[in-house]
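3.2 Worked example (two chains)
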Amino acid sequence: MQFRKGEREAFLEIFDASKHRIRQFAGCQHLCLYNEAGLPEVFFTYSIWTSSAHLDAYRNSELFKATWTETKALFADKAQAWSVEAVETVGAA
């Protein structure tokens, strides 16, 4: 997600207010927020879900709709999202 200049703190406040509710949502096993090194307005979230059904339930929830509405109002560019499956894990995670 790339945010407009000056919107970084607003996004961090939204994330801080919702992160525990997202993490406690049924099926959410892991949630992490990353910031692109050297680009303070670019963030990535990484989450692990028990199943695609759990992720879909979250995406259709009022929590997601409210959080996403607030968040996307701050974007400088359209966000991208991927659903991925692990092919191989080497060492401890």
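3.2.1 Second chain
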Amino acid sequence: MNVNKAIIIGRITQDLELKAMPNGNSVLNFSVATNYSYKDASGQKVEQTEFHNVVSFGKQAENIAKYFVKGQEIYIEGRLQTRSWDDKETGKKMYRTEIVANQFEFGAKPNGAAQGGGNFAPQNNTQTNQNQNSNNNIENNNANEIEYPEEDINPEDIPF
């Protein structure tokens, strides 16, 4: 059995720009930063930031571009894919590994950001009970917005 699955929760690192492919489908390329902290041999706390390239297509790309902003936390689930092309200037073979998103969810919103729309159903046919319960609660409460927990994280403190 083969498995190609990537799951990240991090913050969007740039303003989102939705583009159209030649066939008319929407595409969104963006980056998500995740942090990892540990203590080194001397006991000092060390933080590392990892940047992940993400690509989304179709209605999912449109929804992400519509409801997310730079600095906002996002949950992405998808598969890893490596693309290659020949650089026109140098003639060298170039590579880019990215997460092709097939599901996303809202995370905590940054301070001062506009309220987002709501929780969107995954683009694939599998949903966890948690997602179904969450969607049912939103429908039962007739809520158009998600209440986000208050956080001590300031997007201006993110090192990018």
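3.3 Remarks
The chain has one domain: 6-157.
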